């Protein structure tokens, strides 16, 4: 559509120039007008202002002028509508929305960049919305992105394999990059580019093929997810331990008032004074009603159902479980 408008605009400009040239040349050579008078007659003729002729015309002059007026009206009407459409297209609501979106993206810090707005990308975006996490979507499919009506979804139309697009998405200020494109080769290229642009960026990528897992890891991906493997394992678990799987499926990060929620909280929030304490000393259960079901040490190892005597180390994290109201109480108490 945009290419059609641009081609029509060029045609309109050429036709308008031809009308002016035809009028000036015709009035100058056919009626012996000076160049200035010929230009004046051309302008008042095509604009139909109604001024009188510079000098009286004969029958041939009136015929030429009549044909010139009719053709000029059609050409100028076409030109005016095309130029108006071009101006509106350059300054329409969609472009205004994108300019506003760009300013918003430029203000983001520690946000998430989601490359690819397919099925996996949409699932990731929904979770980020639930977590109230700032994010930017990158996808080359203009039709899919322009169909987005939700103001919460900030996006960039472009190829995520290009460094310029990642920089526009604010990769230097981002905390995490999610590669959710369908082709492993594209995800691999993005991981390589992103790791070079920001060394401490957390990168999560999807993979389809088994041999892509190691390649993505070597390229710099922190986590590699294989949706097909997870889906098959999930279906098998529904056969073996259906009640357990159903219970785990009900664990939610937000939004569903009838579900059990889970949340993670860093050491800096639990021990705001910076002093290392035991789980019993934090008394989180009494303060918020939430229970601690996991502990992640600074080295990255996990402890399931940690003992109350376990001392929390700096840079560690606690995994909490509770009802939605308890999770909300946890967030308010520790400003998570």
Please name the defining characteristics of this protein.
about 325 residues, six-stranded parallel β-sheet, 11 strands, about 55% helix
Overview of the structural elements:
- The chain is α/β, with parallel strands linked by helices.
- 54% of the residues lie in helices and 14% in strands.
- The protein is built from 15 helices and eleven strands.
- It has helices at residues 2-31, 35-46, 59-90, 93-106, 119-130, 142-146, 163-168, 184-197, 210-219, 227-240, 242-249, 267-270, 279-282, 284-288, 324-334; strands at residues 112-115, 135-139, 155-157, 176-179, 202-206, 223-225, 251-252, 260-266, 291-296, 302-304, 317-322.
- The strands form two sheets. Strands 3-2-1-4-5-6 form a six-stranded parallel beta sheet, with helices on both faces. Strands 7-8-11-9-10 form a five-stranded mixed beta sheet.
- Strand 1, helix 5 and strand 2 (135-139) form a beta-alpha-beta unit.
- Helix 1 (2-31) crosses helix 2 and helix 8 packs parallel to helix 9.
- The longest helix is centred in the N-terminal third of the chain and has 32 residues, at 59-90.
- The protein is elongated, with a radius of gyration of 33 Å.
- It starts with a helix and ends with a helix.
- The model has no long low-confidence stretch (mean pLDDT 83).
Task: Quote the distance from N terminus to C terminus.
Answer: 47 Å
Rg (C-alpha, Å): 33 Å
The geometry reads as elongated
What fraction of the residues are assigned to beta strands by DSSP? 5-15%
**Extended strand count:** 11
Strand order of the largest sheet: 3-2-1-4-5-6
The stretches of 5 or more residues where confidence is low (pLDDT under 50) are: none
* Sheet of most strands: 6 strands, parallel
Content-based structural category: alpha/beta
- What is the share of helical residues? 40-55%
Helix/strand order: HHHHEHEHEHEHEHEHHEEHHHEEEH
Discrete helix count: 15
Mean pLDDT: 83
């Amino acid at each position: 559509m945009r290419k059609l408008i641009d081609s029509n605009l060029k045609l309109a400009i050429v036709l308008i120039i031809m009308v002016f040239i035809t009028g000036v040349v015709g009035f100058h050579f056919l009626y012996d007008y000076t160049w200035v008078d010929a230009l004046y007659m051309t302008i008042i003729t095509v604009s139909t202002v109604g001024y009188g002729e510079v000098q009286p015309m004969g029958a041939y002059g009136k015929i030429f002028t009549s044909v010139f007026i009719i053709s000029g009206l059609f050409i100028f009407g076409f030109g005016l509508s095309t130029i108006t459409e071009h101006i509106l297209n350059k300054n329409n609501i969609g472009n205004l929305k994108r300019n506003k979106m760009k300013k918003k993206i430029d203000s983001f810090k520690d946000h998430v960049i989601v490359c690819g707005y397919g099925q996996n990308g949409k699932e990731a975006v929904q979770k980020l919305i639930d977590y109230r996490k700032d994010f930017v979507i990158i996808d080359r499919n203009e039709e899919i992105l322009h169909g987005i009506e939700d103001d919460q979804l900030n996006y960039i139309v472009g190829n995520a394999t290009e460094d310029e697009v990642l920089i526009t998405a604010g990769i230097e200020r981002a905390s995490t990059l999610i590669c959710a494109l369908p082709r492993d080769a594209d995800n691999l290229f993005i991981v390589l580019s992103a790791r070079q642009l920001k060394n401490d960026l957390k990168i999560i990528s999807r993979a389809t093929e088994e041999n892509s897992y190691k390649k993505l890891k070597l390229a710099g991906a922190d986590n590699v997810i294989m949706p097909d493997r997870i889906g098959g394992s999930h279906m098998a678990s529904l056969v073996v331990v259906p009640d357990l799987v159903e219970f785990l499926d009900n664990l939610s990060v937000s939004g569903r008032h009838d579900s059990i929620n889970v949340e993670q909280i860093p050491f800096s929030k639990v021990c705001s004074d910076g002093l290392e304490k035991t789980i019993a000393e934090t008394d989180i259960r009494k303060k918020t009603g939430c229970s601690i079901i996991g502990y992640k040490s600074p080295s990255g190892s996990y402890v399931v159902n940690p003992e109350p005597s376990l001392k929390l180390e700096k840079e560690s994290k606690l995994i909490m479980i509770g009802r939605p109201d308890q999770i909300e109480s946890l967030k308010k108490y520790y400003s998570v």
